[in-house]
Amino acid sequence: MPPTQTDAFCSHAAAELPSARLALTMGDACGIGPDIIARWWGRGAHAATVVGCPAVMGRAAACLPPEVRPEVVRLDDPAHGRSLAPGQMGVWAPPGLPADLLDAPIGRVDRRAGVAAAACIRAAVRLAQSGQAAGIVTAPLHKEALALAGEPYPGHTELLQAEGTPPGQPIAPVRMMLANPQLKTVLVTIHVALRQAIEQVTFDAVLETLRITHRSAQLWGQPRARIGVAGLNPHAGEGGLFGDEELRIIGPAIEAARAEGIDASGPWAPDTVFMRARHAPPAHIGEFDVVVAMYHDQGLIPVKYLGLDQGVNVTLGLPFVRTSPDHGTAFDLAGTGRADASSFAQAVEMARRLLAGRGVAV
Asked: What CATH number matches the domain at 1-170+318-362, 3.90.180.10, 3.40.718.10, 3.30.70.100, 1.10.599.10?
């Protein structure tokens, strides 16, 4: 029989390949997710399995120079087999991938890409829950494509939260952290309109964020992390002149956290707390190990301003490790072979460090 469109990008079928330590989800098939995974993989051998479409991954690999081009190996089973040779990239196609995914146009929003991205995430969660993967590193997805696919979740964090909760159990609280070597920020609210975010800044939400941040910091080697808490309003409310959320909500939550042994302080003026926390020795030693921010852009702009190449998105509170690069699908670079894999590489290294904190070597 002639090779199928999928087989044309695959070197050979392999039913017996090793269970991976990390599951890497492909992300949006029309974006740079496949590109950055392939480029990163070309740097050497890795204890990981790509959860995605072998044909899409093969197309991305084909855009790379021969010296860094991985050989795509289609996996029939992600859990068993022999070790891959250096330069071979194992790709397992989970159930639910659209048969015509390769026809989805590169660089454009497409429903099929959203369907595939969600299917990969769900499959990776199952691998982590069953112990076949130690953790998950996700390539970027496109929120509009996810919505076109009929998913009720606005992004990775919410989908992982829902899928990571055992059946019959209440949804576990999770938080989004963006981190680079100079700054870590954790968000009280995530993907909602700013008006809604302000309404969601409650005593319980702030206190739960402080608890999750404190517990998570222990896994990256800081048993008593210094947590600086940003105010919601200019100048942290200026004693109630510019808003009283700091007096009514944020301050009391900090005091409650401190009563539990959490080293939290504030609320501090949002326009200076990130500068105070920035850790860039020897010129600047941060006063805080992590900053808790009240809403998405308040916390993410400072980290991204320091550079996208080293930023990592971490979902705190999940029963498994999950990290991701801090950039999006970059449709303008998709399929060109020019996408920078630095942030993805940092996400893998962060996952390894977090797993090491749990006693797992990757």
From this structure: 3.40.718.10
CA atoms within 13 A on the CB side of 13: 8
What distance in Å separates the CA atoms of residue 67 and residue 214, rounded to the nearest whole number?
A: 43
Distance (Å, whole) CA 230 – CA 236: 7
17 by Cβ neighbours in 10 Å (0-12 / 13-18 / 19+) ranks as buried
Mean pLDDT of the chain: 89
- Using H for helix, E for strand and C for coil, what is the string for 196-261? HHHHHCCHHHHHHHHHHHHHHHHHCCCCCCCEEEECCCHHHHHHHCCCCHHHHHHHHHHHHHHHCC
Task: Tell me if 1-170+318-362 shares its fold with 181-306.
Answer: yes
pLDDT digits (tens, 9 = 90+) for 220-257: 888 899 999 999 999 999 999 999 999 999 999 999 99
Per-residue pLDDT tens over the stretch 304-341: 998 877 889 999 999 899 999 989 999 999 999 999 99
* Domain 181-306 CATH (choose: 3.40.718.10, 3.90.79.10, 3.40.50.720, 3.30.70.2860): 3.40.718.10
Cα separation, 261 vs 215, in Å, equals 11
Residues 263 and 181: beta-carbon distance below 8 Å:
no
Hey, where are the domains in the chain?
1-170+318-362, 181-306
Please state the pTM of the whole predicted model: 0.86
Other Cβ atoms less than 10 A from the Cβ of 97: the count is 24
